[in-house]
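Input/output pair, single chain:
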Amino acid sequence: MANDTYKGGGNKDLDFRGKIITVKSENGPANCIIDCEGAGRGFYFDTGEGPNAEVSGFTIRNGYVFNGGGIYIYNGSPTISNCIITDNEATRSSGGGIYVGGYYPRITNCTITNNTAYVGGGLYSAADGGMVTNCTINNNTARTKGGGIYSYSADDVFTDCAISGNYAEDGGGGIYCISSSADFNRCTIQNNRTGDAASYGGGVYVYSSSANTFTNCIVTGNSAYDDGGGFYLSSASPTITNCTVSGNSVDSAGGGVYFYSSSTKIWNSIFWGNTPNEFYVYSGTPEVHYTDIQGGYSGTGTIDSDPLFVGNGDYHLTSAPTASPCIDTGWYSAPELPSTDKDENARIIGSQPDMGAYEYEKYAPTVSTGVASSVTGSTANLNGTINPNGAISYYWFQFGTTTGYGSNTAYTNVVDGKSAISVSFPQSGLSSNTTYHYRMAAMSYGGTSYGSDQTFKTPAVSNPTVTTTAVSSITSTSATSGGNVTADGGASVTSRGVCWSTTPNPTIANSKTTNGTGTGSFTSSITGLTPGTPYHVRAYATNSAGTGYGSDVSFTTSYAANRYVCSDGYCGGKTPCNRTVSEAVAAAGTGTLIKIAAEEHNGNFSLSVDKDLTLQGGWDKTFNNPNGGTTTLHGAPKAPQGSLTLQNLNIKP
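Output:
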């Protein structure tokens, strides 16, 4: 069927009438929708249809009918695949999403979500031997029992299903079984709950002679108001094999399991971290062997030890730094021991099966040495990949100038997982122009592995290349320059800046700034300069080979202020103007250039204040021409404090 949303008569309550046909969408359930618009259902099977009668690739929504809000199967064994059954309601009875009244239907790769019914919010099944495989049954609601699944006198097999987030007002938030022998294999039953009064079995409620089996299942995060956070087992005889039951809770008793007149058998399982307790036996005789139970419980091979899960919702067992006590401590002869675990890995890898849903795989990590990157004259990034293969692992790199290596990087921890991840280690302190061998290594409880040998060569190192930025923002005591490191010379630039002096080609032995590391441009502030003084500045950059310099750039600092001296007291209109040199010296601030007219002046005075002044003669009386004649001082000025710089003056005794 083409992409569309199908509504109205002829597009719902579709009855195969016993025909062997396949109704399939063209591009999957997101694109092909049957909208029942709050009246009727999507499909109806009641004429002996077999498994070759198939519905595939539809979203079926907004059904509203007495039974089977989305799909009704009573007298048939059709195949329902790759469908989304959502927002449907069985108004007065069963199976908000799907109703199965018998026979052998096959439901695969479907999502059954947000449906509502009196019982069996997601799925009601009384099938003789149906198969539900790889389905997500979540966020459904039952007004009484079986928020996700209600199994009545059924012989279904549920495999690889996720049953989560469902709600039942009375009992069996995830699953409710009555007189049922349905099997649940490799299923996750998680975060289901019951109502707030007189409700039982947050995850699973098994009742009335039911003989269900739960194998390789995770039961976690479920809650009930009264009893049985994970399981509530009443007048039933289920078998629980290699299951992990953890993190479930109730307000009363039996956070893990509540037994009421039940003859349950439990093998090779883990009950840990349930609230307020793991087991509560009101009546009955549960048989428990080779199982880890927090708080302890009598039975052959039972233990009371932290199972050492990976954590954060991952219930795989860990092996490092301490091996889980559940590894190799299960029962080899447990009845109906599964051949694989929840991940479909071999169930027995060691001498005995493990407890819990996952078998610990005792494989050494798998590593691969990658190509070195960011290679300089002294550094390189050593790269590789590691697959921990389910165990907490540690990796490192071996390196050296031969295949004997001789040096190791630091050990780094990797949380266990089963997928390859990329890792890198930045190694420094290498020699330039040298060929190095390296390989990745890793170890875990399962052993040590090495990657293949790889090589890289560090380049020869030379001084960095740097240019000098033009000088700007010149004042009497400061200026701004900088530079640009355009090449690092094959090794990391560890220092850069500018250096300056009053002579050409300054070096870092002279005054300097430090402005970071690496290549690229930078700005430098030059301070502590003398007013009216010529300077030379060069940018520099340093690496392990030495220091490179930019070109020499010269500049002259300005004066803080100008002051003028002329005997006419007018100074060509320039201000501030003094008649005598001594008056100007006394009035000037440090860094002032005192310009003196070309005439004779008294030089017998002293500088008795700590300031730096420059006396400059030769100016005409308008102070527009610096070559206006000779300025004569009668007597040599003295500077017991501060300093006087004399320029273009004729000193006479």
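Residues 565 and 596 are 5 Å apart (CA to CA). The mean pLDDT is 94.
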